[in-house]
């Protein structure tokens, strides 16, 4: 089963000690939102306003990332606004200096990664992406789990579980 927020969904009480027969890999960590803000601010120190790009019909619920995004934004002195369309977000952020964009995990954003990176580059907006593939298309920076490293480790993990390892 794929669950974006196992704690919030009530499946486990803690990621460190899920209890029962629950186990798995974290692919979307809610704390990543704060890391995106902090890294964007490091890359573009004059960033004062950040637009979040997402599609409300397909995205991981924004509430999953918002607590860490808002905490980091508050510390960094950054204002956060959520938007749900590519050209509107980029054009709005391009109007003023000191704006940036965070592209959040979303199938819509993944399907449109080339268009998103081209628009951000055209308008010269510092943008932080949730997957490395965006950087491969020319995006400024990405901070994410490396699935190419994570998933091959699953076999070792499953082997340990089948042999009775508890921790």
Characterize the structure shown.
The chain is elongated. The chain has 167 residues and is α/β, with parallel strands linked by helices. The protein starts with 31 loop residues before the first helix and ends in a 5-residue tail after the last helix. The protein has a 5-stranded parallel β-sheet with strand order 2-1-3-4-5, sandwiched between helices. 29% of the residues are buried. The mean pLDDT is 80. The chain has helices spanning 32-43, 66-76, 86-94, 107-111, 113-123, 132-136, 147-150, 154-162, and strands at residues 49-53, 79-83, 99-103, 127-129, 141-142.
SSE topology sketch:
Blueprint lengths: L31 H12 L5 E5 L12 H11 L2 E5 L2 H9 L4 E5 L3 H5 L1 H11 L3 E3 L2 H5 L4 E2 L4 H4 L3 H9 L5
Parallel strand pairs: 1-2, 1-3, 3-4, 4-5
Helix pairs in contact: 1-2, 3-5
Mass-distribution shape: elongated
The whole-number mean of residue pLDDT values reads 80
Q: Reading side by side through the largest sheet, how are the strands ordered?
A: 2-1-3-4-5
Beta fraction:
5-15%
Order of helices and strands: HEHEHEHHEHEHH
Can you describe this structure in just a few lines?
Helices cover 40% and strands 12% of the residues.
Which tags fit this structure?
single chain, 167 residues, alpha/beta, 5-stranded parallel sheet, 8 helices, 5 strands, elongated
